[in-house]
Amino acid sequence: MSESKTTNVEVRVPSRMGFEKVAMSTAAAVAKLMGFREDRIEDLKTAVAEACINAIEHGNRLNEKLSVGVVLSASADKLEVKVIDDGKGAKTEPGKVHKPDIDRKMHGEEDPRGMGMFLIQSLMDEAEWVAGANGNSSYVRLVIRLDKEAA
Amino acid sequence: MQSETKASVEQLTSPAGNPVAVLRFEGDIASTSKDAVLGTYQALPKGTSLVLLDFTKVDYINSSGIALVIQMLIEASNSGQKVFAFGLSPHFTKVFTMVGITKYAGLYAGQAEALAAL
Questions:
Q1: Which end of chain B is more exposed for a tag (fewer CB within 10 A), N or C?
Q2: Is residue B13 part of a domain?
Q3: Which residues touch B77 (CB under 8 Å, ≥6 apart)?
Q4: Most A CBs within 10 Å, among B3, B4, B33, B62, to test the A interface
């Protein structure tokens, strides 16, 4: 892969559960070409899957007439992934992503679900949720950086 | 489009002589896996006290799938059962640890190690 410019790959998947795996595989393939370590590729796959699931389920409300756009931008030292839906954007501010409390979940005080944003933020070097203008085309921007050893 | 979750149950005895119900999962574990995960667990014989979850053949688990595992742990805890798991990839071992599941279910690399702990 060229070291002097950004290479872009775009994928558009239907808003149907399961199709996040297409985006996962594409992101993994790009990351492998860039020389990311296997463990970081697994982190990326999970983060992209969770972002797509949120876009499918919450952003596009499982409306199969809408699609989720995934734009991968590979540069010399990082891979940026944008997952774009037609929703109004995440209700949680990026700096306030809820950390799941397993004790509260086990005691019925917190929904067992709702861990996607936490996983995204924990597994990626950067995660930013951006609400679209006019209530649509919101996206989450993920960044994973290449270690110098892997470059 | 999710790969269907297959589930099966095998009754084993631990080296210590304790009966153990092993729930073996295969494929993806996602929001569509409720019947396979919770349904299989809920069908275990009454009196089951030790439960072992086999994730060796699980390819993909998302946060909805993890939520189903947590729901199972809640029911197990309410029933006084102990739950252990094995066969998770290093990545999903890390993810399960991140969300705190290890506090309620011991994770082991393989079946032999898990059974030895029971």
A1: N
A2: yes
A3: A106, B104
A4: B62
Cross-chain Cβ contact B30/A17 below 8 Å: yes
Spatial CA neighbour of A67 closest among A87, A44, A90, A49: A87
pLDDT tens, residue by residue, B65-75: 999 999 999 99
In the predicted model, residues of chain B with pLDDT beneath 50 are none
Q: Measured between CB atoms, does A42 come within 8 Å of chain B?
A: yes
Mean pLDDT of A39-44: 98
What confidence score (pLDDT) does residue A151 get? 44
A135 pLDDT tier (thresholds 50, 70, 90):
low
CATH of the domain at B74: 3.30.750.24
Number of domains in chain B: 1
Q: B89 CA to chain A: closest CA distance, Å?
A: 10
Q: Which amino acid is at B32?
A: T
Distances (CA, A) of B80 to B51, B74, B77, B83: 11, 10, 5, 10
Where residue A92 falls among pLDDT bands split at 50, 70, 90? low
- 10 Å Cβ neighbour count for A102? 18
